[in-house]
Write a structure and sequence with these properties.
Strand content: 25-35%
Shape: globular
CATH topology of the largest domain: TIM Barrel
Distance between the termini: 82 Å
Number of domains: 3
Largest sheet: 8 strands, parallel, barrel
Number of strands: 33
Bound molecules: alpha-D-glucopyranuronic acid
Radius of gyration: 26 Å
Structural class: alpha/beta
Helix content: 10-25%
CATH architecture of the largest domain: Alpha-Beta Barrel
Strand order of the largest sheet: 21-22-23-24-25-28-30-31
Mean pLDDT: 91
Low-confidence stretches: 1-35, 70-80
CATH superfamily of the largest domain: Glycosidases
Number of helices: 8
């Protein structure tokens, strides 16, 4: 029995025939191995005609990542071992046979699809057959809405890309790898947490792994519109400005932007950088707002490419301690939400998930949602545009990252760039949040300060925020985190009545805000199991949770520069940190609604508050 070291440190004994076969396969795949390209951002990918690859994919759970063994003793990941599709009569047996493998639904986390995968953290392989007829002079991209956390992709045995980050969409060019007729795509997705990931090892949410959002094929012409930003000028009335970037276009190539309902039709030329600047007047534009979420069809064209967008036009800015929407002060009546699917639980991804969650927020009286703690699906942002809620969008710079590690900064910056470049045309998005509850250290403040500068370079039309931790001195809460200096809007989290003392402590709490900036109370609340009742001093009951809100809300009314709140949170969500049997059962129960849609008493306490605030009764 001869043996081949097929991976340093891990010795597998394989029979001579298999070893030769492996060598053949390795050499074959190595000879056709295709230098994969970096994934790209396609703004508004969901607005393009696409060929969906959603549905059932073959799946192979691979805890030792055997499928990625490198035959050549180094750690090159070429996927040859698992990437071969077994065919009848093959000269050698392969255990990695997608043909007989069980299925997983895409989109969807694997945890809630198979009991044995609920706690699984590691690699899973996916495979999907598809037929395709290549078009002349076109590019074809494999679009992935999200893959948590690290993912690799091959088409017909050729590696096409690799991506890290669990909550942003990306597009892998597969033009060189597809051919006419039957094709197949193989993906490896590994949700293993790591100290130097973003987020890091510790989070208060379930580490749902997999191809958690839509997967499709997107065809574009040789020169195509990859990114664009079309928005209302903050400084000039009824002026649309922004830019369109065209990949593969020579300088001077024309770009047209039409807004049929406004009889607007503007053209511009791309420069040597492929970007065409936009600046044109419109007449009679109806501004987007939560009360009037007016969306316009915007047709962006260049050469043979065009994108039909739906865009709302509004301005958002800060003046002193006011947040101004379309030039008028606004109070953000909000709620926080995880991307947890109502009823079925697991990662939310569909239009229906979005409409249920935002429908509940609207029922609460919200005009605002903090989408924590990572970029939510495009379906959620489209629904927010349609249904009229402003959004706080956040990257998972959560708790104690390795803030002194340049590789970690690069990962955070990549996710921020992907988030903004993908979603920058949503009227609903008002705030880009850089972080949640990070420790006040010099390394952290520098790290997030750089992220904030990068966000402003990418998008000067929105507000920069973060959810800060708050100091306490006796019964005074002090907001003086140095990070406040780089924010337009301060977010602060506090849990008086749950992690901090009793609900009535809020009655005597003073607030000292160290910055003349708008403040959003970005988290407060407490756990309650829906249907568990008792007196208001009994923790975990609906009455106790409602009592927290009854004491929190009058305290918040006393904070002069409070311009919004997003209590924690809309709906219960799964978390491994919440084991209390019979109460939490691995769910964080701070939802105003249970994961099964049961409204708790506190829902109605907050709803009444928002009704009063909406009736113009701010105090
Ligand atoms: C923290 C954190 C949340 C967490 C919540 C809680 O402030 O930001 O992610 O779920 O509090 O403890 O329930």
């Amino acid at each position: 029995m001869s043996s081949f070291l097929i991976r340093p440190g891990l010795r597998h004994f394989v029979s001579a025939t298999t070893a030769v076969a492996c060598l053949l396969m390795a050499l074959t795949s190595a000879s056709i191995a295709f230098a994969s390209s970096e994934p790209i951002v396609l703004t508004g990918a969901d607005r393009r005609t696409s060929i969906s690859l959603d549905g059932e994919w073959a799946s192979i759970v691979d805890p030792y990542f055997s499928g990625l063994f490198s035959f050549h003793h180094e750690e090159k990941k070429n996927g040859w071992f698992i990437n071969y599709k077994a065919k009848a009569g093959d000269p050698f047996p392969t255990e990695y046979d997608f043909g007989t493998a069980p299925k997983l639904k895409v989109p969807g986390d694997w945890n809630t699809q198979r009991e044995s995968l609920m706690y699984y953290e590691g690699p899973v392989w996916y495979e999907k057959d598809f037929t395709y007829e290549p078009k002349q002079n076109s590019h074809i991209f494999l679009h992935i809405g999200a893959a948590n956390y690290h993912s690799w992709f091959w088409v017909n045995g050729q590696k096409v890309c690799e991506h890290e980050g669990g909550f942003t969409s990306f597009n892998c060019e597969i033009t060189q790898a597809v051919h006419s007729g039957p094709n197949f795509v193989v993906a490896a997705v590994d949700n293993t947490r790591s100290e130097d990931n973003v987020p890091t090892l510790q989070t208060d949410w379930w580490n749902y792994g997999g191809l958690t959002r839509d997967v499709s094929l997107i065809e574009v012409p040789e020169s195509f519109i990859d990114q664009y930003d079309v928005h209302l000028s903050r400084t000039e009335d009824e002026v649309i400005e922004g830019w369109v970037h065209v990949t593969g276009a020579t300088a001077g190539t024309k770009v047209q932007v039409q807004i049929p309902d406004l009889n607007a039709n503007s053209s511009a030329e791309v420069g040597v950088d492929g970007r065409a600047a936009l600046h044109f007047n419109v007449k009679g534009l109806e501004r987007w707002s939560p009360e009037n979420p007016k969306l316009y069809k915007v047709v962006i064209r260049s050469g043979r490419d065009s994108v039909d967008e739906l865009i709302g036009f509004r301005t958002i800015e800060v003046r002193g301690i006011e947040i101004l929407l379309n030039g008028k002060p606004i109070f953000l009546r909000g709620i926080t939400a995880h991307a947890e699917a109502p009823y079925r639980t697991g990662r939310a991804f569909s239009d229906k998930d979005a409409e249920i969650l935002i429908g509940w927020a609207k029922e609460l009286g919200c005009n605002f949602m903090r989408l924590a703690h990572y970029p939510h699906p495009e379906t959620m942002l489209r629904a927010a545009d349609r249904m009229g809620v402003l959004v706080w969008s956040e990257i998972p710079v959560y708790w104690a990252l390795q803030f002194d590690n340049p590789k970690v900064f690069a990962k955070a910056e990549q996710q921020l760039t992907e988030e903004i470049n993908t979603s920058r045309n949503h009227a609903a998005i008002a705030l880009w949040s850089m972080a949640n509850e990070t420790p006040n250290t010099a390394a952290r403040t520098e790290f997030i300060g750089k992220l904030a500068s990068h966000a402003r370079e990418l998008d000067s039309t929105r507000l920069i925020t973060a959810a800060l931790l708050v100091r306490a001195k006796g019964s005074t809460k002090i907001v003086d985190d140095p990070l406040g200096k780089v924010l337009d809007v301060l977010g602060t989290n506090e849990y008086i009545g749950w992690y901090e003392g009793r609900p009535e402590n809020a009655d005597t709490t003073q607030w000292q805000i160290g910055y003349e900036k708008p403040l959003i109370m970005s988290e407060f609340g407490g756990d309650a199991k829906a249907g568990l009742h008792g007196n208001e001093n009994q923790r975990w009951t609906e009455e106790y949770q409602a009592n927290i809100y009854r004491h929190q809300l009058p305290m918040l009314r006393k904070i002069a520069q409070l311009r919004g709140m997003s209590p924690w949170l809309l709906m219960d969500f799964r978390s491994p940190n919440r084991p209390l049997a019979g109460i939490q059962d691995e769910f964080n129960r701070k939802g105003l609604i249970s994961d099964q849609g049961e409204k708790k008493k506190a829902f109605y306490v907050l709803q009444k508050e928002y009704q009063e605030r909406n009736a113009g009764n701010p105090n």
